[in-house]
Each structure stands twice: as structure tokens, then as C-alpha cells.
Amino acid sequence: MHNSKFKALKLSFYAILSVVLVEFLGGLLANSMAVLSDSAHALFDALTTFWLIYAVKLSLKPPDEEHTYGHSKIEPLGSLFGGLSLMGISLFILYEAIIRFLTGTKLFLDFAPIALFSVLYTMVVDVYRIYILSKNTAIIIRANLLHAIADFSSTIIALLGVSAAWMGFSYADSLASIILSILLGFLSIRLIYASALELSDIAPKKDYQKIKSIIEDMHDIKGFKSFRMRKVGDQYFVEMTILLSSKIGIEKAHEIISMVEEKISDAIKNVTTTIHYEPIEEELSLTDKIEKIALKNGDVKGVHQIIVTKTKDGYILTLHIEMDPNMPLSKAHQISEKIEEEIKTNFPMLQKTTIHIESYPETGEGEIIYDDHIINQILKILNLNKKVKKVSSIRMYKSSGKKYIDITCSFPENLKIDEVHKEISYIEDMIRTTLGEYVVTIHPEPYKLL
Q1: Of the candidates 215, 223, 275, 227, which has an alpha carbon nearest to the alpha carbon of residue 244?
Q2: Which runs of consecutive H residues, i.e. helices, occur in 31-134?
Q3: Secondary structure of the chain: what % helix, strand, coil (to 5)?
Q4: pLDDT per residue as tens digits for the range 228-274
Q5: Are residues 385 and 402 in the same domain?
Q6: What is the pTM of this model?
Q7: Using CA atoms, how far apart are residues 161 and 37, in angstroms rounded to an integer?
Q8: What is the DSSP string of 256-282?
Q9: How many domains does the chain have?
Q10: 370-374, long-range: CB within 8 Å, 24+ apart, which pairs?
Q11: Of 280, 305, 321, which residue constitutes the final position of a domain?
């Protein structure tokens, strides 16, 4: 890529040097302001191209301590210089053309054919330069391409001016030069504007939106921040921080980052992407938030039965909090009022909050029950249920005069929750009917079907 830029600029430089020589001699012999102006334009264009070649050579240097992004910014700097020089040319030509028009300086008709030949030669060279420069999209090449197009346009105007002057319209040569200067001024402003934008680190809006869409379309990414993008020469540099769930492990986070980098590389060429990630807590449900508020108070040992009910008068909240059974009612009431106030502050849509105060259950001494006969009966009941695919554990124990059975078993993963609940309730009833009054708790797990 860099070698092609260098080669294109060198060919353009040698071609424009030949134009300077041919047009200068033709314009001087014929006393044509239009041809001499075009020659001056070509001379400045040659000097600008020489600077662009030097700028490309500097931009090929690898990054160093002072230029960590490389030296490609020299390219738009060279383009800016080219635009300013082109502006100078246009003002010079405008000034000379007006003076010539006012003084009535005329073309030397005997040498008009030589002037026409030099103009036609320039047109051929300009077409050649446009051809070799249009194959490269780098901004510094685009700057030289604009010069080549300006040369071709100005050469046409010079051709018309010289031809008209040769046919007797003596002021045509000066008028052509005035038109030429205005055209060059317009082109120079465009080039200066484009180069200044790149030097100011402007990010192409279209490419920015592409990357933003990539991030927003990935459901694992909860958001992003510190999104920065810059263009240096034909290279893009993208930096951002993506927000991922705190439940995602490092390996998964790295996989997501690699996927984002790959998608950005597919969307934009010559891009270097640097992505960091930050873990964020998942958004809690309303009941979880209420529980969190209640548990902030160290005297609250547990929260359960949080129920939010929508009525025509608004939302009503009820919840149970567990506290020390030896705590005086006055203190427990103060704690519940404080919790109510904080809930109302955080959730003003809750019209009424009712807190049920109860003592937290004391931990009693328990005893594990080992009875193979009972376990075999439980297994028999479980095996009769075709929805149960696997039994992971059965634990029996007694505490505070009560007997408990805890079971962990698996159901098909595609089974709906209400269906699982029905099966669990049926199994629990069967166990109680068979074994007597046990507190039966079944924990369901998903079973992946092959």
C-alpha cells in the first residue's frame, strides 16, 4: 500500500516537471498569460508533489516514543500544505490576469500554434496523472489527484482562451486566466477543509455508526462507554470500554471481546481495535431491591413473602421481616417504620407498605436419619414418575420434633415451570401418604435431553 503511494507520486512528479518546461516555453514565446499561468500552476504543483513524496517517506517510519500512533499524520499535513499552495497559485493568477486584462496585453499570434501544442501536451500528461493517481484512495494521493484534475480543468480553460485569442478575441486569454483562478481557489478550499478535518482527529460518522450498531446488536454487551475513534492516514484506531455482566467469567469476556474485534475488522479496513471491559451488576427485580433495602438494617435477619399488588388506588406492598425474638416491640416498630420510609423514597409508586414483624426461627439441633427401607420407598415413588429423569440426592433428618426429606432430582429441560410444580406436588403428596407426616422439599434441576 505504502509502496504504491510512493510510486504513484513519483510518476506524477516526473510528469508534471515535463509540463512545467513545455508550457513555460510555449507561453513565453506566445506571450500567453493563460499558458504561463497554467505553467506556474504546474510548477507549484510539482513543488507540492515533491513535498507529498517527502511526507509519504516520513509516514512510512514505524511508531516511536514520540509518535505512538505512527507518522501517518504527516500525510494530511502535506495535503494541507498542498491546499494552501494551490490557494496561493489561484490568487497569483487572478492578480496577473486582472492586470493583463486592464493593460490590454495581447497574444503573439505567430507563436500561437506553439502555445496550443504545449497546452495539448499538458492535457495528455494530466490525463495520465489522473489515471495513475485514481487507483489509490489514500488522502495524500487524493490531494495530488485534485491537483491533477485542477491542472486538466485549467488546461482546458487555457486551451479555450488561447484558441479564442488566436481567432481575434484578444481579451479571451485574460478572461480564461480569471476563470482559471476562481476554479483553483474553489479546489484549494475543499482540499484545505478535508485535510484540516483529518488533522483534527474527526471520526468518519458513517464508520462510527457501523461500530455502534455492532455493539448494540450483541446481546451479551450491556452497554459501552469511552468510545473513541480516530483516523491517521489510511489507518483507523478504535478504543472503547464495553460493559458485561459480572456473572460472566474472564474466559467468556475475552471471547466476546475477540468477537467484537473481528466484527469491526470485517466492517472497516485497516483498523486497530483496543477494547477493555468492566463488570456490572445485573439489574435487580423490584422484590430483590426491596429485600436489599430491608436487609441493610443489621437487626433484620431475614425477609420473605414480598408481595406487590396492583389496585385501582395504586400499588400495595406487603412483606415479612425476621428479627431477634427477644427484641422489644418498640424497637422493632422503629426499624419497620424506617424501612417503610426508605421504600417510599425509592419507590414512590408504592402507595401503601405493610410490614409484618416476626421472630427469626432459632436453629435447633438436628439429626440425620439413615433408613435404607424408607429411601428405597422414596426411590420407588420417584421411579414411577416418567417425568423424573435422574435422582441426584435424598437426605432425611429430624429437628425440633419434625421429620424432613430433601430430594434433588432432574426433569426435562423444556418442561414448563407450572408442569414441574404439578409433578413435584404430586410426588410430595405420594411420599407423605406412604411414609406419614414428613416435611418434603424437592429441588428440581433441568435434564438435557439428547
Answers
A1: 223
A2: 33-59, 74-103, 112-133
A3: 55, 20, 20
A4: 887 766 677 888 898 887 767 777 888 888 898 889 888 887 788 88
A5: yes
A6: 0.41
A7: 12
A8: HHHHHHHHHHHHSSSEEEEEEEEEEPP
A9: 4
A10: 370/396, 371/396, 374/435
A11: 280
